[in-house]
Write a structure and sequence with these properties.
Length: about 140
């Protein structure tokens, strides 16, 4: 999903974790939603590096596939390349997971997967859902 959105210029900085997790309801309809722990472990176990930063526009963490040169420039925890001061108190993936769970668990329960400006809501049926269907 990250690669598809990046190659189509569908985002500026990356995608939020609730957006990535919630997209599964349209992309893999027969599968249960992943937990925050599961998706972060999947990122960690992947063969690519993942950029993480707090997006100034929406004020929350966003994720995208990292450029290889970023690994030597920015702070890394496992294969997470932390572009800004995000997770400054975290020293490992488990601590990052705990922080993300405290931020996003209630949003996932309420199915608030998308953030526009300062508001979390469901997906935009005219924009998000057609893009999800491109991935299938």
């Amino acid at each position: 999903m990250l690669q598809h959105y990046d190659s189509n210029n569908y985002f500026q900085n990356g995608l939020t974790l609730p957006f990535i997790i919630g997209s599964r309801t349209y992309i893999e309809t027969e599968e249960k939603l992943q937990t925050i722990r599961q998706i972060i472990e999947d990122f960690k176990d992947s063969n690519c590096f993942i950029n993480v930063l707090k997006c100034d526009t929406i004020g929350t963490y966003v994720f995208r596939i990292s450029e290889p040169e970023n690994v030597s420039i920015y702070r890394c925890i496992d294969n997470f390349v932390i572009i800004d001061s995000s997770f400054s108190n975290c020293t490992n993936i488990k601590e990052i997971i705990i922080e993300l769970e405290s931020l996003y668990m209630n949003l996932l329960i309420s199915k608030s997967f998308s953030k526009i400006g300062s508001e979390w809501s469901g997906f935009n049926l005219k924009i998000d859902v057609p893009r999800f269907k491109e991935i299938k």
